[in-house]
Amino acid sequence: MTDTPLTPHQNSIELLDSPLGDQIVSAIKRTIGASNTTKPHGLHEPEFPGNEWAYIKDCLDTKWVSSVGSYVDRFEDDLADYTGVKKAIAAVNGTAALQVAYQLAGVAAQNEVLMPALTFVATANAATYLGATPHFVDSCEKSLGVDPEKLKHYLESHTHQKGGRCINNSTQCPIVALVAMHTYGHPGDLDALLEICQRHNIILIEDAAEALGTLYKGKHVGNHGYISCLSFNGNKVITTGGGGAILTNDLRLAVRAKHLTTTARQNHKWEFSHDEVGYNFRLPNINAALGCAQLESLDRFILEKRHLAHRYIAEFNDITDVQFVTEPPHSKSNYWLNTIRLKSDDIFVRNSILEQTHRAGFITRPTWKLMHHLPMYSNCPRMPLSTAEQLERSLINLPSSAALGRTS
Ligand SMILES: *Cc1c(COP(=O)(O)O)cnc(C)c1O
Predict the structure, then answer these.
(1) Domain limits, CATH 3.90.1150.10, in the chain
(2) For the chain, which terminus, N or C, has the lower number of CB atoms within 10 Å?
(3) Which atom of ligand 1 lies closest to the CA of 96?
(4) CATH architecture for residues 12-48+298-405
(5) What is the model's pLDDT at position 407?
(6) Considering the entire predicted model, what is its pTM?
(7) Is the CB of 94 within 6 Å of ligand 1?
(8) CB of 188 closer than 6 A to ligand 1?
């Protein structure tokens, strides 16, 4: 077994197709249909089937292209309606939305923020921007989210309470928040995580960047913590080009979020006055226009994505060395990225499958390199991360565009 990932186009090793790779390639081929195999397609491609052109043209015609405009208000209202939160605040991207959400949750210099090691780097970066330290926790095999059992035992033995705060015994720093990230659209075990957070005086934040359209126990994700975030990057379920949103059920927080993302400018007819250090994190109207049109197609995208997932499930059912990742119990996932887990956790096997699927014309991807394996986060506090490390070596994302699940 080797720990060195193969670089693409490495030609010193002649890779041969393996029987497992053949099985995986033909399962993908059968799922997405022979007609798609000749067209190159990304892992998750955006689609603009509805009013996208019309709404953007409207922005250009009316000259409302920048950070103020009716599409921003409408997008925020539509998002709140769709997700069931009281308020959504649009932001320039998901990372910026996370940073502001963390700040409003009290994350600051000298704090620690618990988060999965298995996540996209933005989850950790947003804490670092505020001077806080990411503190990595292990993931659960089933949901791919934070493992509540391991977290519970870890906090009991590694932290204490002081003045109503949770203190890390080894660093003496306060642990202020836990970020639950809903991996590939599958919701984490929010009830269990919330209970642990309440017991230890930790604030729960949801990084729902990948999970627009996902329900946990019948309720849209982003409703369960103190504050949460979405992303509308080009590869997400819907896109605004770049964009994100902060979601909250607390109207006071919503006002603070809007203020912070709008350079903390005070409302006045002509004066430029700012009462704290804010950010220029507003979503431009032209991007919001795209978002309004995309939201109109969201239900259809999710139906198609779930249809695609069910076809993959049927095709991978007989391959014993592969497990298809399905939505956890009591949830309805948007299946943002379809994912298989190899029985083998030898990274050489994973890489050879990635190479073979690419040779066959299918875009596949490994999961993210774990946060503590990145140079800037290698010294951060962490619990033993055995499950995350196995997942890192065995997860592969499959082509997941909504169009691939279309029947007609
Ligand atoms: C996409 C994503 C973000 C934010 O992404 P932006 O590209 O900044 O919009 C944050 N966290 C996770 C887990 C993501 O997948």
Answers:
(1) 12-48+298-405
(2) C
(3) 8
(4) Alpha-Beta Complex (3.90)
(5) 77
(6) 0.95
(7) yes
(8) no
